[in-house]
Amino acid sequence: MRYLLITVLIVTTLVADTASGNFMDALQNLSKPDSKESKLLSGATQILSSSREIDYKTERTIGESLALEGIQRFGIPVNNESLQKYVNMVGNGVASNSKRAKIPYQFAVLDSNVQNAFAVPGGIIFVSRALVSILSDEAELAAVLAHEVGHIAAKHALKSTQRAQFFEGVGTITAASVRGDKGKKFASAIGDMQAVLFDKGLDKEMEFEADLAAMETAYRTGYDPSALIRVLEKLQKLEASSRDKKGSWFSTHPPLTERIARMRLELKKYPDYAAMAGVQERFIKYAKIK
Amino acid sequence: MRISLNIVAGVALLLVATTALAEEKRWVSSEGTTLKSEASATSENVVDLIIGTEVTVVESGGRWLKVITSSGKEGWVYAGRVSEAPPVGEVSGSEAGLFGESMQKSQINTAKADSARSIRGLSPETTEYAKSRGTTELVKKSLDVVLLRKVSPKELKVFLQDGKIGEYAQVQGGKK
After folding, report:
1. Chain A 203-222, CB below 8 Å of chain B: which residues?
2. Do B81 and B124 lie in a common domain?
3. In chain A, at which end, N or C, are there fewer CB atoms within 10 A of the end residue's CB?
């Protein structure tokens, strides 16, 4: 009987620990070596070659050059300083809990009617006015931005084109490297990366990796991670009725049905997700743009 | 019956012991992490913790962990700001590969990059690229404004506080 009591006590303690420690358990599962994320990460290491020699300064030059092309193509930033500042707050909030928290990040809403968001190497992230307009709260914005931060943290754009190997071994890109013959090669490599980021889209597994990172980063920050699923579901509805898919998340990202299904499974790691922040009021105040 | 109960109790004890061991070490993985005197964001600051700092868990309370640093500072840290494994560093091209680089070194490198950048917007290299591509002044100026926008750690803290996000959430239940 005494043993029975001890056993009941221990089991009860364990159950109580689990109930109160959902948040802890979820966090622990994320960093287990045999977890899906860990395996994904090790897979990413295997394919990493072209970006190994690129230093941060060069990565940033590549990113800024691509950012110029992005603005050229999708539109200049929306002329609304309080919105731009707000998006930078949410973005930096999630970035500080990402796997690459130490680099500077800048975020901007571009005046584009195509639902899209993209990240260029080094920390610059753009989201379109059209994509922001379909979001309902801050957690949804955080999910989109955390997805893009995930791409930058894992250096997906740099790994996605053979031409990026041009940067390998060249050392730090200087102003002289972007002039003359070298400049032509640089521009050609930027052109290839543009095609991937703006038209073809990144590798499907990279997108899933960024989705996983988005949920984890949002959750660590304190946002409801299920917001990512809500955004994907909204895009799925839009996709059904959208005629022009060129340059949008529909054309540059993997099938939404598959992403939603995978993220629903992933959500099981965050049993207390519904108790996390949504922050609707502030989002409406700053981000509901006409 | 008594033997099987003993086994169950033994297994349960082993589980508890394993869990305790597994939960011992944590590493700071978020920017702007502060060790607090109590399990609350409004309590006093003990010390600021940089990314990669190793801490030992003393006690767990909801979403907060009571930890002790290697220099003996004790206090509470929000669980979302630490991880079970040391955070990964930057790609350096070294033989150690992507995950072999020490976080400290990476922090120094990126901090240098950040401070170098903080004095201007568009870099000379990008300006040169824009020139070669015939990029319009409007596009260049637009990116320059984007790059000059900064968020200070203090601003970010106030923002998270206002939104009651993460460690600033007042009630663990009840979605805002």
Report:
1. 219-222
2. no
3. C
